[in-house]
Amino acid sequence: MQIRSFLKPVNKEKAQFLEGFLGNQIDFNIENADLKSYSLAILGVPEDRNSIGNKGCDKGADEFREYFYQLTTVHSNLQIIDLGNLIPGKTVDDTYIGLAIVLAELLENKVVPIIIGGSQDLTFANFKAYEKLEQVINVVTIDPSFDIGDVGEPITSNGYVNKIILHQPSYLFNFSNLGYQSYFVTQEERNLMDKLHFDCTRLGEIKADLKEAEPIIRNADLVSFDLSAIRNSDAPANKNVTPNGFYGEDACALARYAGISDKVSSIGFYEFNPLVKDFGQTAFLLAQMVWYFIEGFGHRKGEIPEINKNNYLKYRVNSDKNERELIFLKNVKTDRWWMDIPHPKNDVLKFKRHQMVPCSYSDYVLACNDEMPERWIKTFQKLI
């Protein structure tokens, strides 16, 4: 394992080495680890120098572990390693570089990293890890705001998304935000998201039917979860927390959606701040969210419609109103839906994997009622 020099091993005294508990299931021996033998890796990142208003979140990973290892074993056949904490660089940029190197090696070895931040600007380093793989990806943030920031300003936890969007060469196909709250988002930011054909869904829309978040997360390669998206009453250990947001059980469900998605290859949880004393409530919730991600991961079905064609029913929708035939696929085992988006003949192969777009039954119903599903339109516009 080439990344040992970037890592500080975990304090094993924090783990509960009891039969049937995660502290006993997870491997801590990074010295002799063969990454290819693991499915998941936990990585703490003690970095908050670019945090806006939430200094102290660099200490979140160790407190998270105290509660995480008290939870029961989930899918005992899963091989999980705790890599400890990334050693922060002399500058924040050094930390970004080190984190990207570590994550790239994990991704190359088909290990899904679970990042415990740290401030959310670390998402940019997570994104950079895919650059080495030359893989065009989809990013989903669960966040009460877009965190776009100003182009000319340095990167911060409130302004990192513009760095992802403008990064050259570009490896971003789609960006989606789940759970934004309108009073934190300017009209200019909404206009920009519309112009770029990105997907942004208000908190109220998601809470009205949480299952509609599943296909959005299923389409992600990288998921970034800002704990500020959870309401103060459920996750108070965050200096930027607000009265509204997801409930704790919503957050666990969203984490599980990410776990069961065969496409999600990395996930990060950010902005937990143990300096805000809450008797361990937020740390416990974060531990449960990660537990649900792992639980979902253990139930992955290998749902790749273009490969496992025998498991799918194909529906063709034609109408006088829509010029194009819409093709939907339904997995007969899981009851999950996809749309097959046509792409130009001269389209480069790197966009091929984005042609099959996860959707919901409601998208199929829209099409049957002569309405074009919005996610179909946005994906097609990015392909042409």
Short characterization:
Helix content is 30%, strand content 18%. By secondary structure, the protein is of the alpha/beta class.
List the helices and strands and how they pair.
Elements lengths: L6 E2 L13 H4 L14 E5 L15 H9 L11 E7 L5 H17 L3 E5 L5 H12 L3 E6 L18 H6 L5 E9 L6 H9 L3 E4 H6 L4 H6 L3 E5 L21 H13 L5 E5 L10 H17 L14 E6 L8 E6 L5 E4 L15 E4 L1 H8 L5 H10 L1
Parallel strand pairs: 2-3, 2-4, 4-9, 5-6, 5-8, 6-7, 8-9
Antiparallel strand pairs: 1-3, 10-11, 11-12, 12-13
Helix pairs in contact: 2-10, 3-4, 9-10
Provide a descriptive summary of the structure in words.
This protein folds into 2 domains: 4-297, 3-Layer(aba) Sandwich (Arginase, Chain A), CATH 3.40.800; 309-383, no CATH class. It contains 12 helices and 13 strands. It has helices at 22-25, 60-68, 92-108, 122-133, 161-166, 187-195, 203-208, 213-218, 248-260, 281-297, 361-368, 374-383; strands at 7-8, 40-44, 80-86, 112-116, 137-142, 172-180, 199-202, 222-226, 266-270, 312-317, 326-331, 337-340, 356-359. α2 (60-68) crosses α10 and α3 packs across α4 (122-133).
Throw out a few tags for this protein:
9-stranded mixed β-sheet; 384 residues; 2 domains; 13 strands; Arginase, Chain A; 18% strand; 4-stranded antiparallel β-sheet; alpha/beta; 12 helices
End-to-end Cα distance, whole Å, is 41 Å
> What's the CATH class label of the largest domain?
Alpha Beta
* Overall morphology: globular
Q: Give the SSE order as H and E letters.
A: EHEHEHEHEHEHEHHEHEHEEEEHH
CATH superfamily of the largest domain: Ureohydrolase domain
The total count of strands amounts to: 13
**Biggest pleated sheet:** 9 strands, mixed
Helix vs. strand class: alpha/beta
Q: Mean pLDDT, rounded to whole units?
A: 93
How many structural domains are formed by the residues? Answer: 2
Distinct helical segment count: 12
Q: In the CATH classification, which architecture of the largest domain applies?
A: 3-Layer(aba) Sandwich
Beta-strand portion reads 15-25%
Radius of gyration: 20 Å
Sequence stretches where pLDDT stays below 50 over 5 or more residues:
none
Helicity, in percent? 25-40%
- CATH T-level topology of the largest domain: Arginase, Chain A
Q: Which strand order do you get reading across the main beta sheet?
A: 1-3-2-4-9-8-5-6-7
